[in-house]
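hey all, quick one before standup. I had two proteins in the batch that finished overnight and I want to keep them in one place so we stop losing track of which output belongs to which input. First protein below, input sequence then structure tokens straight from the run.
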Amino acid sequence: MLVPTSEIKNKAKRGEVYAKQRTEKGKAKRQRRQEQKKEELANPELREARLRENVPATQENTREFDEAIVNEADEEVAEDEGEDEFAAYFNGQTPKVLITTTPNAGKRTTGFVKELVSVIPDIEYIKRGKKFELQQIIQFCKNRDYTDLVVVTEDHKEPTHVTLIHLPEGPTAHFRLTRVKGGKEISGHARATSHYPELILNQFSTRLGHTVGRMFAALFPQVPEFQGRQVATFHNQRDFIFFRRHRYVFKSGKRVDLQEIGPRFTLRLRWLQKGLYDPLNGEYEWA
């Protein structure tokens, strides 16, 4: 019979008893596993039954059904997306993207922006001066037929947020930026080339996810250059968006290896606004 350690007043004795009880529990557990293994070797059906019953509870398999998840065969959604703000880019229109930062951005922020410049084809980086407000930059982009504006903001000289503004009429998405790692910080990284990458969007399955995914897709030309073997991936899981860029390498007729190019970072949507950026009077679609 195990003695409750909480009833032992002497600290040294209490620690000794606890360690002994823990050792005995470990031995009993190993013995049970060995006996179970022998029984399952003799009767494989026991192992199959155990695996069927012992399904670990995860956030994915315990998540309640979301009515907002879009069925691939949903004709209404397909019709809406055929006429939305991004439809032209899926029909061959070439994106024209400008990226900038907060005024006097630090080295880490400008370094991250340069990584993004290597990811998004034909994107233009303009250093932002103190006198230019965001509304002025938006108007500047509209006058010059830019299709998207990306703004990277920082806190204590570290990049912390990304605002994606689709032009000329919106929408606008604001993301929290974390876990930034440049290509040179990744061990065994590959070198990027100027080829247009293939784009993979994983698990953007709700109506909100479709909108955010199409915003990302509209940044990239819809004509990937397969000879570059570069893939940019936005993977949505538990409301976090993980970005990775790889090059795939054919080792043989049956094997393909991946070599990460970088950068890698994580985004989390903070709010989605209809129309252009307007923090005071804008209509929020999600927040």
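OK second protein, same deal, sequence then tokens:
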Amino acid sequence: MAAQLAKRAFYSRVPNRSIISVSGQNTAQFLNGLLTTTVPWPPSGAFYSAFLAASGKMLYDVFLWPWQNGDKNGYLIEYDPRSNEAPSLDSMLKKHVLRSRVSIQKLPDEWDVWATWGGEQSEPARQWRFGSQGAVEPLWNNGVEEWSRPETRRLRDLRAVGMGHRILAQKGQTPDEAHNHQAVTEDDYTVHRILHGVPEGSQEIPAMSALPLNSNLDLMGGVDFRKGCYVGQELTVRTYHTG
């Protein structure tokens, strides 16, 4: 049965988000060794993921957006820049570069993140696979697209049914929905997100304390239990199999 959504349509800037770019010929290999989900290459669309510490505890929940830096493909990493117990994201990334041919750059003043929701009659029914020890995996079928998709600056927010869309726009620009959606505050977006049970950022997913499965990242499509090695994988996969 399709989920019923709010008929009124809204848009808001998403608070507490910043951007770091990673580009270069080794971008996919570099990020695949650090992120909880598989990194498509060449970039084929935006998606949700996370960085973990070696202990398996959370560092940052992130969205990745395809990006081209001159003739170099790469990704823009959207994250919560507020101070927390984790090392800063740019310093953490640079620590792992070693001989990887990648370029890392902070872009805090070039992009805004927006959310739109409501104004739709229904959304395709969602399905999940439930592991024997309590972990959950989304099933990408029945008309629901996986995170990666051709659009590079917009995605359907699949962290929960009814979350709407997430949009990356140049600083100072508003999404196309601004002409037919009602503008609301960042606090309204936060309430909308909380009502849908979606945690976001270091205040709700505490760095070096929270575990990805305890924070519902598996339910929200932010963990791929079948990808190769990445930092923090051991505890995450062991939890999936043994609880």
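Flagging for whoever picks this up: The chain is about 15% helix and 30% strand. The mean pLDDT is 88.
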